[in-house]
Amino acid sequence: MRATAVRPQGDWQPADTITLDYHHRHRRRIRLRTDGGADLLLDLAETTHLRDGDGLDCGDDGIVRVIAATEPLAEITGDPDLLVRLAWHLGNRHLDVAFRGTALLIRSDHVIEAMVTGLGGTITHSEAAFDPESGAYAHDHG
């Protein structure tokens, strides 16, 4: 199968599913295997951030629904002033960050976590799908 377009979550019925972590959901071209065992070539015109529930349009082969895989995450908390400082440090390292209420969420990384705790932040570990902020210059379909 060859996916050349992305359909936002909608009323279509999937022919198959594919479970991908964040790294594999931000691509332009890559060879993958669906959850049903089919080979899939993701062949998009430009790099796209795939979100949970999006569909990969494979033409006559149907639509393959994207499922965001759970992965190890670090939830960073602290007082508001500290969170602003920590957000600056994370951005300065070009890390992907998601926002959950009054917490920052990053993919687990012991080096970054040591920096965060060294600056006074608190880390709580969890596993969930990671969907970071896309940024001011992103040209996302959703």
Sequence-ordered SSE layout with sheet pairings:
Elements: E1 2-3, E2 5-7, E3 16-20, E4 26-33, E5 39-49, E6 55-57, E7 63-68, E8 70-77, H1 80-92, E9 98-100, E10 103-107, H2 110-118, E11 122-129
Parallel strand pairs: 1-5, 3-7
Antiparallel strand pairs: 2-6, 4-5, 6-7, 8-10, 8-11, 9-10
Concise overview:
The protein is of the alpha+beta class.
What does the average pLDDT come to?
93
- Biggest sheet: strands, sense, closure? 4 strands, mixed
> What is the CATH fold-level name of the largest domain?
HSP40/DNAj peptide-binding domain
Shape: elongated
Structural account:
With 142 residues, the chain is of the alpha+beta class. It folds into two domains: 2-68, HSP40/DNAj peptide-binding domain (Sandwich); 71-129, UreE, C-terminal domain (Alpha-Beta Plaits). It is built from two helices and eleven strands; from the N terminus they run ββββββββαββαβ. The protein has helices at 80-92, 110-118, and strands at residues 2-3, 5-7, 16-20, 26-33, 39-49, 55-57, 63-68, 70-77, 98-100, 103-107, 122-129. The two termini are 24 Å apart. The mean pLDDT is 93.
Features:
single chain; 142 residues; alpha+beta; HSP40/DNAj peptide-binding domain; Alpha-Beta Plaits; 2 domains; four-stranded antiparallel beta sheet; 2 helices; 11 strands; elongated; nickel cation binding; unfolded protein binding; Urease accessory protein UreE; UreE_N; chaperone
